Every structure is written in structure tokens, then in C-alpha cells.
Amino acid sequence: MNTIETTTEEILQLAATHFKITRDKLHPDDDFFKTLGINSLQALGLLTRIEQHFHIELPDYELQGVSDFRTLAERIQSRL
Amino acid sequence: MKSFQGKTLSWRVEGGAIELSLDRAPCNEIGSATLAELEQFISALASLEGSAHALIISSAREEGFCAGADLRELYRAGQSLAPAKRLAGVRDFLERIHRVMNALDEAPLVTIAAVQGVTFGGGFELALACDLIVADKMARFCFPELRLGLIPGFGGIPRLKRDLGNALVRDLLLTGRSINADKALSAGLVSQVTAEGGALRAARATAAQVGKFDHETTIAAKRFIKPIPLEELRREIEIFCELFMRPAVEAGLRKFVESADVLPYLP
To answer: Average model confidence (pLDDT) for chain B?
Structure first.
């Protein structure tokens, strides 16, 4: 099973690929809305990629109050 | 009118299928302009039916198929009205959109929704009025109405109950969460999942397939297996109107409209 560090790294890679930026621009404690300049609709696109990649279902209400990649990784980890 | 280009949608007949394409920024929200053009489409449908065996509804917006009712218009239109007039306006809108949805539901054509991205609320309801839903892998489906203190009002609950087991209907309605295309496929909501951007192509292939069969037989089969839940649809309008005037709804709409997020779709 993934460690939390592996999960975080995979999310950062997914976000970089999905939003077409280089991986080095993203860090675990970044606010993804601010760093990526996205709205909640675009965040749902990332959620879909995450669900497909990790083969999980992550109800979007679990993202309430989550705005950084590290906390997002914790939510995902709880579903693995 | 074999083709039409409006402000919110367009249609044309191509290869035996009517293609209705939604195109209103940001994500095909259904307000008065879209409703008027959908009504225009329904009026034209009788003259188009003879030249087609299928209807494909798709979206030209990358953001998604349709994000639902135009909540900003709903909120702003209601602000200047006395409560009784506000409610009358909502009821009128619901009755009109139900007539559109019912006409699509019972159309003597095989109807296919080709969806991508956000397919929420009224957009989900529009897809559910179709016989088949073909989704690309980035599609997401959601009934977010409870977040606003409302229930789906465009016919979604009776149509979803017609298609799915009750457990998932309760999950979607009571949690307001969105589900992805794979989940929708395994639940039997969606008949095909395609690569990103592939839903319209797959819908066209499906339309070509259904066009091989005798049209009268196809429509007889459709009418046999797809009853229109008219009584429940009428009841849905009543429940929606009962809920609409509650303070929670005004607060929910105001929160949506005043959100700094241009498209505030997370719960």
C-alpha cells in the first residue's frame, strides 16, 4: 500500500499533468486553488483524475475545507 | 426548420440524426434564454422527426454538458418581486421546462445525451430525459439541489427512480455528491464511457446503429419499456414550489450567487 508521501507525490504529478504545468511549481502545502488558479469546477476535473488513478471513490463533500495537496492526500489515503 | 443557430443552442440534421448542441457560457446553465430556445426546438421537432431516427443532445462547452439551472438569474429575477409573484414565476418556469423534458422523454426518436464534464442538476435531468447517456471519462453527475434547500425540479427524481435502484438514488439526492462516469456506468445510469472528448463520436455511432432498425418498431419498443411518470413529475413541481419560499432557499441561492468562485460547485 502507498505511503502518505507516495500518495502526495502522485497527486502532485496528477495535478501538474492535468493543469499542464511543471511538477516543480507545486508543493505539498500549496493551496491548490490559489497556486493553480482554478475554480471548484476545475477542481472536480482533478478529483475525477484522482479517482481513476487510485481506483477509489472520493465523495466531494470529503473535500470540504481541503485546499492543500497534503490534506488531500490524507483523505485519499483513508480510502486506499 | 432543418437547422437553427440561437444564442444558447443550435441544431441541425446530419446523417439521419438531429444534433442539438448546447452552447451558453459558462456551462450551459438553463435560464430563460435557454428555456425559450429549447421550447423553439420542441416546436420544430414535429417537422424534423420525419428526417431523422435519432436525436443527440451534446454540449459545445469544454466545461461540461450542463451545470443546471441558472441560479444567478433565478436569484436576481426574484429579488425585485413580491413573494407571491416570485413563486408564480418559478412555477411557470417549472411547468415550461417540464413540458420540454416530457416532449424529449417521449419523442418518437431514439434520444442520446452525449455528456462530458459537469452534468449537474438540471443538466443531469436533461440527460435523464434521453433514452441513452453516453459519457466521456471526465463526466460527473450530481444532484446538488439539497445544498440550496431544494429538490431537483426539472423531473430528475422520477426519471432517476425509473432508471436506477433506490439506494443510489437516495445517495445522490441526500448527500448531493457527484459521481464519476465509471461509477455511473457500473450503476447502469450511463450506457457507454469513452475517452475524453469521445462522447459525441460514440453517440453518432450509436445513432447510426439504431437507424438500421424499423423506425415504427423501435418507437413501439421505446414506449413499452419507458413509461413517463407523469403523476410523480406533477408532484415534484408541487414539492419544489412548497420548498422554494423557505428562508433556507433564499440563503442558499444568495451564498451561491455571492461566492467568489465563478463556478461554485463544490459542496
So the answer is: 94
The reported pLDDT for the residue numbered A53 is: 97
Q: Structural domain of residue A70, as residue ranges?
A: 4-77
Give residue-wise pLDDT tens across range B56-77: 999 999 989 999 999 999 988 8
> What residues of chain B lie within 8 A of the CB of A51, using their CB?
180, 182
Verify whether the Cβ–Cβ distance A63 to B140 is below 8 Å: no
Burial of B161 (0-12, 13-18, 19+ CB in 10 A): middle
Q: What is the pTM of this model?
A: 0.95
Rounded Cα distance between B156 and B178, Å, is 15
Give the count of domains, chain B: 1
We report the CATH number of the domain holding residue A52 as 1.10.1200.10
Given an 8 Å threshold on Cβ–Cβ distance, is B138 in contact with A41? no
Does B114 have pLDDT greater than 60? yes
| Helix extents (H) in chain B | 32-49, 71-79, 83-105, 122-128, 156-163, 166-175, 181-186, 199-210, 215-225, 230-244, 247-258
In a domain, B208, yes or no: no
Nearest to B138 among A43, A45, A64 (CB): A45
B138 touches chain A (CB under 8 A): yes
ipTM: 0.91
- What CATH number should be reported for the domain holding residue B47? 3.90.226.10
Residues of A in contact with B176 (CB under 8 A): 61
Of B67, B118, B177, the CB nearest to A61: B177
Three cell numbers written together for B263: 463556478
> How many folded domains does chain A comprise?
1
- Per-residue confidence at B95, pLDDT binned at 50, 70, 90? very high
**Best residue in B177, B179, B180 for a mutation probing chain A (most A CBs within 10 Å):** B180
The residue segments making up the domain with residue B24 are 3-198+215-258
The Cα of B57 is separated from the nearest Cα of chain A by a number of Å equal to: 21
Q: Does B265 touch chain A (CB under 8 A)?
A: yes
pLDDT at B170 over 70: yes
Q: Which H or E element spans position B66?
A: strand B64-66
